[in-house]
Amino acid sequence: MIGFLKGRVISRDEESEIITLLVGQVGYEVRLPHIVYRGLEIHRMSLENEPDLELFIYQHQTERSPKPLLIGFRNEMEREFFTKLISVQDIGPTAAAKAFTMPIRTIARAIEERDISTLTKLSGVGRTKAEKIAATLAGKVAKFALIQGEEREIPEAVSTDELRLQVIEVLISQLGYRRSEAVEMVDEALKENPGLETPEELFDAVYRARG
């Protein structure tokens, strides 16, 4: 079983928040929960001359799903909380990773207080699942509710300028467009859609504008 990886990020998918981590001569696909992806500022990485990334790994593999699923965390505490979450009935590793859209402390406090309203704000968690999470884990995650300073680790969303530059660079380096084309496409999309906040939203706007 893979429990830890250290390597360089060579690619990323902003929508799925899956990265490829080059360890030696092997590239590992690792899914990062949203809170981890943003906390490590993967969206800001240039992918060139970046320091190695260290990840604690949860590996999931079954007879029904023989392809290994690797989920990465910044520390063992995050991984441990993740294992608590997947112990809840009907919450598998992929669903649990998607649900990590709030700081662990916030989720743990909501569980301990049986705050269903807060739990339903997690990605993919409706009222039924929220009630199952609270019923299963209340009284078992108090230590995670005591984590200090976690919210400050989550950076603010990228600015429009940063978003613009990110998408332009991908259009040039990965998708084969000339710089002048990329700049024109992105600026046109932002002019028509000034409220865009994520790379996937901007790529979609660019695509629709060209369609």
Can you give a write-up of this model?
- The structure is a single chain.
- With 211 residues, this protein is an alpha+beta fold.
- It folds into two domains: 150 residues, Beta Barrel (OB fold (Dihydrolipoamide Acetyltransferase, E2P)), CATH 2.40.50.140; 51 residues, no CATH class.
- About 3% of the residues have low confidence.
- The longest helix is centred in the last third of the chain and has 14 residues.
- Helix 7 packs antiparallel against helix 8 and helix 8 packs across helix 9.
- It is built from nine helices and five strands.
- A hairpin with a 4-residue loop joins strand 1 and strand 2.
- 26% of the residues are buried.
- Strands 3-2-1-4-5 form a five-stranded antiparallel β-sheet, covered by helices on one side.
Task: Sum this structure up briefly.
41% of the residues lie in helices and 17% in strands. It is of the alpha+beta class.
Topology:
Blueprint: E1 4-13, E2 18-23, E3 26-31, H1 34-39, E4 53-60, E5 69-73, H2 76-85, H3 93-99, H4 104-112, H5 116-119, H6 127-137, H7 160-173, H8 179-192, H9 199-210
Antiparallel strand pairs: 1-2, 1-4, 2-3, 4-5
Helical segment count: 9
What is the fold named in CATH at topology level of the largest domain?
Answer: OB fold (Dihydrolipoamide Acetyltransferase, E2P)
Which residues form runs of ≥5 with pLDDT under 50? Answer: 151-156
* Rounded radius of gyration (Å): 19 Å
The helix/strand class is alpha+beta
Regarding quaternary structure, what we see is single chain
SSE arrangement, N to C: EEEHEEHHHHHHHH
CATH superfamily (homologous) name of the largest domain: Nucleic acid-binding proteins
Please state the overall shape, judged from the principal axes of the Cα atoms. Answer: globular
CATH architecture of the largest domain: Beta Barrel
What is the strand tally? 5
Quote the average pLDDT.
88
Largest sheet: 5 strands, antiparallel
The tally of domains stands at 2
* Strand arrangement across the biggest beta sheet: 3-2-1-4-5
Q: How far apart, in Å, are the first and last alpha carbons? A: 46 Å
